[in-house]
Amino acid sequence: MTTTIRSHFDRELARLAEQMLELGSRARRAVADGVQAFARNDVDLAREVISADAPINQLRYQIEEACYQLLAMEQPVAGDLRTIVAALVICNELERIGDHGKKLARICLRSGSDIRPMPSDDIVRMGEVVLLMFDRMLAAMAHRDAAEARAVCQVDDQVDAHYKQLFNVTLSYMLENPRMIGAGTYRIQAAHELERVGDRVTNVGERLVYAVTGELTDLNA
Amino acid sequence: MPKIQVEHLNFHYGAKRALTDVTLAIPERKITALIGPSGCGKSTFLRCLNRMNDTIHGTRVEGRVLLDNQDLYAPGSDVVDLRRRVGMVFQRPNPFPQSVFDNIAFGPRVLGISSRHDLADIVKASLRSADLWDEVKNSLKKDALSFSLGQQQRLCIARVIAVKPEVILMDEPCSALDPISTLRVEDLMRELAREYTIVIVTHNMQQAARASDYTAMMMLTDDRKSGTVIEVGETKMVFTRPQDKRTEGYVTGRYG
């Protein structure tokens, strides 16, 4: 079997994979910066995250268009088809992950210059768990590693546990100190954005598994 | 029960083995596509299903080919009736150099039908089934060779239908046709599959994906001296999730 046939198509698939990783990288940065902006009340950083969202959206649309063209021009089947249709779903999820980073930045701006009575260490810790999960999934994408994708999806349980704990702790604070309701609400919103990032990373994993193996299963259960 | 069951078929052209240990079930009233690289024995295999290879000197068959559970190669088999029951459409349209009417009526006449009225009914019904009646109904006496290739191929299909087959074998039936004619023949195949079992050999991957229910992938054996079936399954699975890496390589166009 030779590998020189369809070299043009293979180059296009390689370019698609690179663009997906670029999108993933930008989305990851949006989340990481969004967490830092919120934790440090860094409004300048928050504004940078918000302005970086439009290019993320644009890249997502470029990827989507490239997929449609490959479907039309190359009539892919089997593994090639699965890779392209999975890319259509994954690029949507990655763009939404970027949106969650933007929302973290917006929460930072909404909270204004109020001095937070509550620490944000647990938000940062939750952010670290989510970002590590995301990093592993991006590596799984780069290596088309379905086994790693499945393993990473298991980590979402930890993310959910972080969210529940943070929610309960914040609720207790708010009940004990009604003046903290504002700050507490922002904390819960921020944690919710991170929890959704975990869900979306799992969605990415499901489609990666499908692209590599052909199995379509719910890894988010 | 499959319409045709092939069991451990080996086929030889003289001393040269062309097919090795082919086992395949052809479902009834479905379209089964045979795909694979050139030279892997697809057309040879197809011709085994109605013993057309018997016309080639020095051929030898081992194994069984069962049509409705009856071995085609059993001693005393009626080969003429077999070729009525299992008709064939070839790559290049090959109507006889006769009128449209006489082309279609040829088979029924050989079978003993002589009434002009009965023959007219058969001709009309066959041409209708082949989606050709409206185009030729006023030209039944016209020379069949004066029509387009697409029309000629549908005429050849009508000719097969006229003798009431059970199975229609098609060896790259569209390779000489333009894209529109090709799609018309594929639509026709879908209609015909309601009544007939169809087996089609095609080099056109998109055609196999569009037009068949099941796909059998044929490939040269490891010693590259003969052909065999390496995978068979529902077409939608073969083209989205093939089991064999060689099938994946072939359908994605990376086999060379």
Describe, in short, the structure shown.
Chain A is mainly alpha-helical and 221 residues long.
Characteristics of this structure?
heterodimer, A: 221 residues, mainly alpha, Methane Monooxygenase Hydroxylase, Chain G, domain 1, 8 helices, elongated, B: 256 residues, alpha/beta, Rossmann fold, six-stranded mixed beta sheet, four-stranded antiparallel beta sheet, 10 helices
CATH architecture of chain A: Up-down Bundle
- If you average the pLDDT of chain A, what whole number results? 94
Report helical residue fraction of chain A: over 70%
Query: What's the structural domain tally of chain A?
Result: 1
Nearest-integer average pLDDT of chain B: 95
Output the CATH homologous superfamily of chain A: Phosphate transport system protein phou homolog 2, domain 2
Structural class of chain B: alpha/beta
Low-confidence stretches of chain A: none
CATH class identity of the domain at 4-95 and 167-251 in chain B: Alpha Beta
End-to-end Cα distance of chain B: 36 Å
> Approximately how much beta-strand content do the residues of chain A carry?
under 5%
